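G.,

No rush on this.
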Amino acid sequence: MEETEAPPQDKRFWGNAPIALSDIKEQEQTRFSTGISEFDRVLGGGTVEGDVILIGGEPGIGKSTLLLQASATASQKGKKVLYVSGEESLSQIKLRADRLNVSSSNLSILCEVSLERIIKFIEETSPDWIILDSIQTAYKNGINSSAGSLSQLRECASDLIQLAKKDSKILFLIGHVTKEGLIAGPRALEHMVDAVLYFEGEKTGPFRILKTFKNRFGSTQEIGVFEMAEKGLKEIPNPSEIFMSRSPSPAPGTVIASSIEGTRPLMVEIQALVTTSTSMNFPRRVITGVDYNRVLLLLAVLEKTFGTPLHKYDLFINVVGGIKIEETGIDLPLIFAIISSFKDKPLPQGALLVGEVGLSGEVRGVSNIKARIKEAEKLGFKKCILPEVNLSSLAGGKIECIGVKDIVSALKKFFPN
């Protein structure tokens, strides 16, 4: 009787058997620092074994630069790193590495798009870190579609993720983004990985912001702030100073707001410009850095409660530095910025604002008020306008805290006419 050939072994087979939850031994997850503290902050303190991280962002924003700098630091600390590029040649990567002053014998560069060859080199060299730049360039034989297609993305990512999980390797995947700013490909790709990070910022400006969209091993609210310099990405340990102007005198429509990004208090400058509408039909609304619909809601509250005829005026709003704020604690600063521009009267110098505004114009309390006030004291603020309900949790301090119940009384106090 002829022997039948054994089926090829599935490399995604882990060989595990079901085990009772109560019998699983607890293992402390040790984190490994990337050597970039702002990167570590976003990851939740560093990477863990078997971590799979997907990083997206517009072309030229600095994704490859960030990972090349991180891989150099990791390799200098003894980690074996394999940097796989499907978009650049060896000489191009070498030029960028020289500019960044990156050099290490533990850092290997591979220019390859064939998934089979990539996995072959991973098995031969057994690196601790694997970086694939980008997942859209990987190609697996046997799938009748071009690289970057949905099926190629799904299969290539699945094989690499299974390999990383099985051998407890750390895998970074760089992903292209669509014109809407989302990572190109199936959303299943985001479900398969442990963390999804987005690199944001104006390419013409120096500042970059790394945000977390998903993180199984940390918070999804943290941000990392960088400056793109000649020698690569430079960390910004105190981002509040770059998001605020230091003009000698306050200007109408300019307000400093206090926001919380993860555990970090962040002071940002909000600018508003209210001008007579040049349109015959609808006034213009150009809003950058804050939620468009949230601003429309606040405009409706202002017209209803304060009687400001903003429907006759064009409105322009900008958050300085290119950062995007999603917290509702900037409602009160937005309203003050709009009325300040409308009345052409600046707020007192050294004033800080924070507070959420409800539909009836009431000012609601915000979280982490002590951390916000402490950060404001370090930056030299003298006065803070905040929700009255938050006053009870504050005692002493160098800042004069002014509590407000609703926007009508608050605005009349600072803009009596």
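When you get to it, here's the other one too:
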Amino acid sequence: MNKPGFPHKYLSKVVSEKTRLSNIRAGVCSHWGCARPARSDSHKDCHTCAKRKTRMKHPLKYTYSNIKDSARKRKVTFNLTLDEFKAFCDRTGYLTKKGREFEDLTIDRIDSSKPYQADNIRALTWIDNCSQKLENMTNPAEPIARALAKIAKSDNWKAYLTPANITLQQVRALIEQEEKEFEENPF
């Protein structure tokens, strides 16, 4: 299930008994190379390593849980069961092709006003999903305003439209300036 070059190979690396016991006495994670504090006396690994082990052992449940948590944080209703999600992954190959690169898959709700449910989700490449969001956007300053509101921990992103528009104008001016400089001196 894991992509080539999975970054947490150390979780399966064997640690000598002497090192393991030394780490336990010091109250740090028992995994090779990890120096984070252990969760407790009964759990000898840290929260990060425990979560990574879960992701390796149960990738479907881990991904399902992350998507569900993300929907909850964005206050989007989530009516998708684990079995429906498994069928979606089998049909689209989502679990093996998900990621953050342009051609990796993301989950998109077909109708954004409806919840996550079996008949309202599809797999799109990351770049297609971003392009679709931009095409449906009426105000190009909206993502900037939403980001500013998020930084300020505010739910009212519309209150940040004025500074967002100023920022957008500044970005456009910088892009224009850069394009002129490139035209004058391409290399």
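The two ends are 44 Å apart (CA to CA). Helices lie at 17-26, 47-57, 59-73, 82-92, 94-97, 126-135, 142-151, 161-184.

Enjoy the weekend,
O.
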